[in-house]
């Protein structure tokens, strides 16, 4: 495991903030009892008991993981807000917790149980390093550790829930008799002889090797065609496809400090889908439009709104031409946020058109081609992430916006209802703001994570995001 780019400023851990409404029969000190239960010997399953073999050399390319004895009193901590705590105070606490790096001398994760919220509510903040578990997997594990039954009262915390194991592939049936065994051996000998004749004594089958070479060649041809489309769009001046050199310089693309700021917003999924239907776009298009409205207003107040539209990088799931099992491949696209448009209706129309053209680039590509194209499209961003170049070079994109689908039904932990699922993500040099959202039980939960020093008054972005939905509804009504 090679942990690249880790520094005191770019801490590569992700987290989730999960606020809960108390169970009807909850005791005032139920979190104290939960901590006592954990101290008495809760089990810890993989991957939560794994740490780096050489924690003082995290960038070692030969790094590996080893099992460790977990000190749960270190990893699970109980915190409290001055009662009654509100959402702003919760955001301040999470901002401070997210600014503290994980300890590589232990399994790289923490959980903070936070009490003192209004109405007896509490929250869980769980942090894990991206090298151990990626953000999508971490949120899925957290969701799987909760229950759909509000009456269940003995559910352990996520690190005590063993991960499901894949069923072993069924063994091939043995030969019915000696004749079948002899026929099978003869067939294998004949195949081995043919392979040897074709020059495949080492076990490399020439037809399979030739097919792999053809696939890579075909992928490269698809990538070249897609890149030529981008170049032609740029030269024509139409900008139907956003190019890596189209994003303007922006205060969001500066060097960051180790301090963090975090804010949340929760919007009704039905309202977002209604706007998407009205404009002939997708839910992701509306999410981009909400972020665009928020960023436009925020940067205008700072007198830092670029004249050219901001560009976002977002991961998308695309059906591939070599998809035989109904799965998806994840690619990266660049899209315009149309922040130069004052009219919300024109702004979202431009965004829908931009994402549509970007996705058409990936349609019909193989999975290998999608990965190649996405890597080439975003490769220049590596330069802006270097501390010396951050804020000095033109960015490849201005902000990362991603949307992760989550559970559709309410979840519970020992009778306490999960109210929302807010992702807390990773700012890096050259990308001082990250916007990630999760859908959950009829809502879309936005998490705005930024550098405290580079993105001041970040909570305004969350407020303006909600205002943007009202503006959009009025504009497309």
Supply the key terms.
Chloramphenicol Acetyltransferase; alpha+beta; 7-stranded mixed β-sheet; 477 residues; globular; 2 domains; 12 helices
Look up the CATH topology of the largest domain: Chloramphenicol Acetyltransferase
In one word, what is the shape?
Answer: globular
The main pleated sheet reads as:
7 strands, mixed
Helix content: 25-40%
The helix-and-strand class reads: alpha+beta
CATH homologous superfamily title of the largest domain? Nonribosomal peptide synthetase, condensation domain
The CATH class of the largest domain is identified as Alpha Beta
- The DSSP helix count reads 12
Any idea what the CATH architecture of the largest domain is?
A: 2-Layer Sandwich
Q: Number of domains in the coordinates?
A: 2
Q: What is the count of β-strands? A: 15
- The residue ranges in which pLDDT falls below 50 over 5 or more consecutive positions are 174-178, 191-217, 324-328
Strand content: 15-25%
Roughly how many Å is the radius of gyration?
A: 26 Å
Overall pLDDT level: 83
**Assembly type:** single chain
Order of helices and strands: EHEEHEHEEHHHEHHEEHHHEEEEEEH
CA-to-CA gap between the ends? Answer: 52 Å
